[in-house]
Amino acid sequence: MRTPDDTTLTDSGLAAPQDGPGKVLIIGCGAIAREILAVKSANGWDHVDLTCLPAIYHNHPEKITPGIEAAVAEHRATYERIFVAYADCGTGGMLEQACERLGVEMIAGPHCYSFFEGNAAFAERAKDEITAFYLTDFLVRQFDAFVWRPLGLDRYPELRDTYFAHYTKLVHQAQTDDPGLAKEAKECAERLGLAYERRLTGYGDLTSALTRVSEA
User: What class, spelled out in words, does domain 6-113+203-214 have in CATH?
Assistant: First the structure.
């Protein structure tokens, strides 16, 4: 499966294959489509398909649960098994309740920052990182679309110090060892007036979650 460009993943997501019944369908967030496809490719999971909701739902979590419910209803008859590649992601427990009601599994954890680092490790580290602002590889590439413009900083840059007054550093959770992307992330930190830390997380708990559902 060819990965769409980041703008398409942000605004439209990724459609499921249209070539008939399948075994496993992952319904994920467009912001982690590249990572899911990388794990799928590395393991040779030809029986696993992927569809994604628009990544911009990251900024509108009230849209996630209805979007997942609609996607499950659309594809339930076509696939033997469906897995939801979202954590809670700001839904306040509503996504978990919907998945239980629909009889589908989902990734454990509060959000992608947690499962990329590993939920246990993130929970321990988070005690001392309440002033950290996190970006994944995707969010570094789409920084303007997800942070700068939605906060109005393109029009009112003076608001930066108000919005980020209680943050001290930007943590780039790097899924890939990409020096160019690290440079972009450092520039994001500078634009926000924050210290910069790069943390090579890889795919964290995403790999084990996908392995469990794909090899069951």
Answer: alpha beta
Residue extents of the structural domains in the chain: 6-113+203-214, 121-200
Q: Which pTM was predicted?
A: 0.95
pLDDT tens digit string along 43-81?
999 999 999 999 999 999 999 999 999 999 999 999 999
pLDDT digits (tens, 9 = 90+) for 149-166: 999 999 999 999 999 999
In three state form, how does the secondary structure of the chain look?
Answer: CCCCCHHHHHHCCECCCCCCCEEEEEEEEHHHHHHHHHHHHHHCCCCEEEEEECHHHHHCHHHHHHHHHHHHHHHCCCEEEEEEECCCCCCCCHHHHHHHHHCCEECCCCCHHHHHHCHHHHHHHHCCCCCEEEEEHHHHHCHHHHHHCCCCCCCCHHHHHHHCCCCCEEEEEECCCCHHHHHHHHHHHHHHCCEEEEEECCCCHHHHHHHHHHCC
